[in-house]
Design goal:
By secondary structure, the protein is an alpha/beta fold. The protein has one domain (3-233): TIM Barrel, CATH 3.20.20. The protein is built from seven helices and eleven strands. The longest helix has 19 residues, at 148-166.
Length: 238
């Protein structure tokens, strides 16, 4: 029985000047320890291509397949997450809102400190280091607050901008704030029409590859105090 665990991180490393730690900030040492615990538990990280193939044909995946994801495109990933990923030979996915490349996380100004996000050169460096940049929309708005037409724009424009800027295919989407508006049929059609093979939410646990809904994939929310062993054991007998 092949299982998939998608780990969802945001910031790795210390806060930037003027910012402060929140639950979404994972120290670099903790991030490395969590990666080590992942491998010690018998999980193997896979790249985005293998992961997407495995959703169609689970035999393409190892028995325990893990995907490391980083939301929003924080610049700190380049200095603090990438070295740990390289040390463990891990690939990863960074979900980037295309309208905020080179800016700050202004979409979270009411809840999180403002910190710099990667510019295009930094994203290219991450891609060169094995981090696949995929879509997080354009404006990082909740899909339940958008019209179907606006959702289509978010899907199509973000994909086009990221592919033009990085020269890499974008086939995976992460709903901002994990909000898929209930995954109505028209949204699924819009994702497919725009060229997305799968889409991720936020929160949940590992799941069986054969039972995966490609447009409503769960992710394990990762913070500095996440009990990864317990999270990975969740649903082990499903």
């Amino acid at each position: 029985m092949r299982r998939i665990a998608i780990l969802a991180y945001h910031k790795v490393g210390p806060p930037s000047p003027g910012a402060w730690e929140t639950w979404f900030s994972v120290p670099a040492v903790t991030f490395a320890e969590q990666l080590e615990a992942l491998y010690a538990s018998g999980w193997e990280t896979v790249d985005v291509g293998t992961f997407l193939r495995g959703l169609r044909d689970p035999v393409a995946l190892p028995e325990r397949a893990a995907v490391i994801t980083l939301d929003d495109g924080y610049r700190s990933a380049l200095e603090f997450a990438l070295p740990a990923l390289r040390r463990f030979g891990s690939r990863a996915v960074m979900f980037v809102p295309s309208g905020f490349v080179g800016r700050t996380n202004a979409f979270d100004e009411d809840d999180e400190p403002q910190e710099p996000l990667c510019g295009w050169d930094e994203l290219r460096e991450l891609v060169g280091g094995g981090v696949s940049v995929q879509s997080h929309g354009v404006t990082h708005r909740r899909f339940s607050e958008l019209t179907p037409a606006d959702r289509q724009i978010e899907l199509e424009r973000s994909k086009a901008e990221l592919e033009a800027g990085l020269g890499e295919p974008v086939r995976l989407f992460a709903y901002p704030y994990g909000d898929d508006a209930g995954a109505p049929p028209e949204l699924r059609k819009a994702l497919a029409r725009a060229g997305y093979v799968a889409a991720c939410g936020y929160g949940g646990g590992p799941f069986r590859a054969t039972a995966a809904d490609p447009y409503r994939l769960e992710r394990v929310a990762m913070g500095p105090d996440t009990d990864l062993a317990a999270a990975l054991a969740c649903g082990a007998d499903d």
